[in-house]
Amino acid sequence: MAELDAGALGARAEHMIKTLASISAEPNRLVRTFLSPQHRDAADLISKWMDEFGLDVSEDALGTVRGHWGGSGKKRLLIGSHIDTVIDAGMFDGPFGVIGGILAAGHFAKAGRKMPFGIDVLAFADEEGARYPVTLHSSLAAAGAFTITSLEVADADGVTLREAITRFGKNVDDIPAAAYSREEAAAYVEVHIEQGPVLEHRNQPLGVVSSIAGQTHLNVELLGEAGHAGTVPMLLRRDALAGAAEAILLAERLARDTRGEVVATVGHLNIPAAASNVIAGNVALIVDIRSGSDQARLQFVERFKAEIRAIAEKRHLGLLVTTTRDVAMTPCDPVLQDGFAASVTALGGLPLRLASGAGHDGTAMAKLCPIGMLFVRCRGGISHNPAEYASPADMGMAIAALIKFIEGFKP
Ligand code: GLV
Ligand code: MN
Ligand code: MN
Q1: Is the beta carbon of 128 within 6 A of some atom in ligand 1?
Q2: Which terminus of the chain has a smaller tally of CB atoms within 10 A, N or C?
Q3: What angle do CA 8, 69, 4 make, to 5 degrees?
Q4: What are 115-138's pLDDT values in tens digits?
Q5: Which ligand is closest to the CA of 357, given by its number?
Q6: What is the pLDDT of residues 358-389, one digit of tens each?
Q7: Within a 13 Å sphere around the CA of 54, how many CA atoms are in the beta-carbon half?
Q8: What does the pLDDT look like over 205-220, one tens digit per residue?
């Protein structure tokens, strides 16, 4: 086998990541949402790269690009991540995993080296949930777990998923054909930036993921009465935004009370008729709740619901709480973890194990097959922020570890 040049792999990855990051809906910040024109352009670039690296390229009904390198057996090792982004994103979250997968599969394809299993690199595009209130449709379709009712969810402009798929040039009737069979899918693995500070703190470039945190999204709508900011006395107001402020602080307080077991965030607040001189009549917010413990997460949800009800009653506000996401904690397969640990060790790293607080396509792919993940250190643990950064040296080591993992993989 040719010597692995991790430095060259990392430099190549960085160049490709920067090229992909030039595809954005906005000139001054990175925005690439599911089934948007930028998703189309990014998918075309990924297809071109996969082809150049010797992979057979196809695309499914949700726009997931697939690059296949055939093996001698029927089984396939699936390697993926996502090319959609949050609003004002960094360039590494998702793209590094797709590009790392292309470079790793390309390592085998370029050498004409067949393994006893095929390799499929998957570029999903619905991991961030920036467009639709429910998410992971791309990986759910690949896992054969796409639910047809999802087609009716709408984005902020009222465009349903069904319409968006059609506008993207795809046919919703083809979604079932996106599914891998259980006989075919040997495992799903993903390399991703850590998005947290643990590896940097431990002075290690790589870490083996033990599990992916469970997640709940509560959509909280508060209904008061719109009014004039100058005339309605304070005690006669039914201010939905003041109620929302209490809801945000409630989520923060309840999460702090768990002493690290649960984290909760309100990062999305919608004031449909916002104006400085209008008492808000109607406000909606999303509470994002994560934990490695499903029990702790569900307890949090019950406490939040009870206390927000009391707040709404006290303020004479209407209240509607809808659960739009409820994903259990997903363990990573112990054998795949050991495979990544062995490849990290072979490269001179310490095979640290760590849980992922962030969500990943792996939670959907776990409905199909065992999953595994490898994290790479990112500067300051910063992510979902344009300052996100992983060094070419660390990325190169992660890709080299992925190649070693593939060499040792037994379906
Ligand atoms: C995706 O990055 C998520 O964890 O929300
Ligand atoms: Mn991600
Ligand atoms: Mn993300």
Answers
A1: yes
A2: N
A3: 25
A4: 999 999 999 999 999 999 999 999
A5: 1
A6: 999 999 999 999 999 999 999 999 999 999 99
A7: 15
A8: 999 999 999 999 999 9
pLDDT of residue 1: 46
Residue ranges with CB less than 5 Å from ion ligand 3: 93
- The Å distance, Cα 184 to ligand 3 centre, comes to 28
Contacts of 156 (CB under 8 A, 6+ apart): none
List Cβ neighbours of 67 (8 Å cut-off, separation of 6 or more).
46, 47, 50, 51, 53, 55, 56, 57, 101, 102, 105, 120, 121
* pLDDT for position 129: 94
Give the separation between CA 313 and CA 304, rounded to whole angstroms: 14
CA of 379 to the centre of ligand 1 (A): 18
Share of the chain above pLDDT 90, in %: 99
What is the number of the ligand 1 atom nearest to the C-alpha of 359?
Answer: 4
**Cα(279)–Cα(37) distance, integer angstroms:** 38
Tell me, using a 6 A CB cutoff, whether residue 359 lines ligand 1. yes
Strand ranges, E, within 149-281: 185-193, 206-212, 214-223, 227-228, 262-270, 278-279
Q: What's at 299, amino acid-wise?
A: Q
Ligand 1 contacts CB of residue 194 (under 6 A): no
Distance CA 110, CA 266 (A): 46
Instruction: Please report the sign of the dihedral spanned by the C-alpha atoms of residue 104, residue 205, residue 42, residue 79.
Output: positive
**92, 128, 136: which to mutate for ligand 1, most atoms within 8 A of CB?**
128
Residue 27 Cα to ligand 1 middle (Å): 23
**What is the pLDDT at residue 2?**
53
Side-chain half-sphere CA neighbours of 28 within 13 A: 0
- pLDDT at residue 156 is higher than 90: yes
Give the pair of three-digit tokens for residue 262. 């649960």
- pLDDT single digits (tens) 220-277: 999 999 999 999 999 999 999 999 999 999 999 999 999 999 999 999 999 999 999 9
The predicted pLDDT at position 230 comes to: 98
Exposure b/e, 154-174, CB count within 10 A at least 16 = b:
ebeeeeebebbbeebebebee
